[in-house]
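Example for tutorial group B:
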């Protein structure tokens, strides 16, 4: 591993107010989203959709890195140009999801453990040779009746740390993603407590596994009330709860915190990220940025509907969301940006 290269890549991923675009849905997840819109669930449809995204004119002005899936990183444009080349030429750093999914955890009803460590060293080497410079692994923590358990938090944190160490060995910046889910009726305070415990456990394990903090990116959830909780805090309250939780638990050596959207609407995710930067940017030790999937892509997918005639409109919608989040990184996003095509 070349430590300086890792540090440089991590810095580039959070530079210039840009953020990450997650287009790493597994085939089953991508198919589920296609099915809802009546789009055929085929390899060709997935390829065409990803081609639409990565060829969006101007995307590199707002997006620093794109997280791909194993199928996608091997695909080409219709004219034969490899996707990796298209992304790199757009000034975007290619990344790759390397976990093998969250599976039911033995002895822990309602909880999941993310798999994928076996053979990971070889897979990382291949991805590096293909041109990837960063990777992602997602752990899932649910809040519910007597969960999360310590067993679930510890096992997931340990796997994240071993993944991150292997990434750095291979020259890939690890995106460390412990996602506390929004599903449920829990309060914002409960989410904050669970997020705090998860982050402490994750950073403890990262330290134990000798992961270099300056060569990684944290991808956490925002601290939010559960989707069905009767009390839904304001944008500013969410921003305060989130950044205060992170300030207590994330070392200053980490260059960036890139939030997942987790099912929030695009506008709400932008507004909350904006409030965090507006209120905390001047004293935040890390960049507060985005690594959104649905909160950037969903409007584009809804418009595309699998039809060639809709490609250009879908690309405009994608670029709009990317630009809104770029503005949110500077604390300059506002509701007036919506609906005007920016
Ligand atoms: P969402 O922003 O849609 O949650 O996706 C981000 C991601 O990469 C989940 O692993």
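The residue assignment follows.
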């Amino acid at each position: 591993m070349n430590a300086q290269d890792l540090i440089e890549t991590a810095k580039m991923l959070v530079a210039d107010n840009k953020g990450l675009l997650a287009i790493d849905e597994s085939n089953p997840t991508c198919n589920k989203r296609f099915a809802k819109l009546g789009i055929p669930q085929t390899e060709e449809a997935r390829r065409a959709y990803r081609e639409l995204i990565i060829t969006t004119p101007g995307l590199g002005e707002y997006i620093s890195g794109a997280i791909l899936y194993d199928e996608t990183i091997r695909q080409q444009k219709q004219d034969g140009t490899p996707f990796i080349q298209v992304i790199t030429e757009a000034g975007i750093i290619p990344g790759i999801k390397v976990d093998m999914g969250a599976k039911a955890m033995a002895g822990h009803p309602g909880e999941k453990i993310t798999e994928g460590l076996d053979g990971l060293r070889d897979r990382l080497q291949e991805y590096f040779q293909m041109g990837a410079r960063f990777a992602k692994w997602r752990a899932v923590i649910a809040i519910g009746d007597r969960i999360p358990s310590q067993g679930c938090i510890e096992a997931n944190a340990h796997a994240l740390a071993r993944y991150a160490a292997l990434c750095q060995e291979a020259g890939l910046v690890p995106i460390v993603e412990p996602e506390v889910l929004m599903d449920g009726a829990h309060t914002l305070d409960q989410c904050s407590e669970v997020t705090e415990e998860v982050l402490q456990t994750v950073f403890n394990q990262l330290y134990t596994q000798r992961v270099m903090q300056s060569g990684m990116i944290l991808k956490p959830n925002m601290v939010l009330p559960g989707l069905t909780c009767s009390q839904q805090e304001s944008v500013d309250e969410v921003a305060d709860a989130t950044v205060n939780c992170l300030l207590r638990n994330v070392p200053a050596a980490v260059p960036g915190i890139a939030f997942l959207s987790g099912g929030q609407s695009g506008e709400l995710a932008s507004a909350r990220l904006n409030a965090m930067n507006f209120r905390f940017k001047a004293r935040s030790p890390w960049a507060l940025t985005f690594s959104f999937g649905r909160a950037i892509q969903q409007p584009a997918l809804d418009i595309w509907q699998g039809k060639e005639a809709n490609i250009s409109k879908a690309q405009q919608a994608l670029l709009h969301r990317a630009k809104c989040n770029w503005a949110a990184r500077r604390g300059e996003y506002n509701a007036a940006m919506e609906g005007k095509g920016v």
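The chain is about 45% helix and 15% strand. Compare this with the pattern of hydrophobic and polar residues in the output above.
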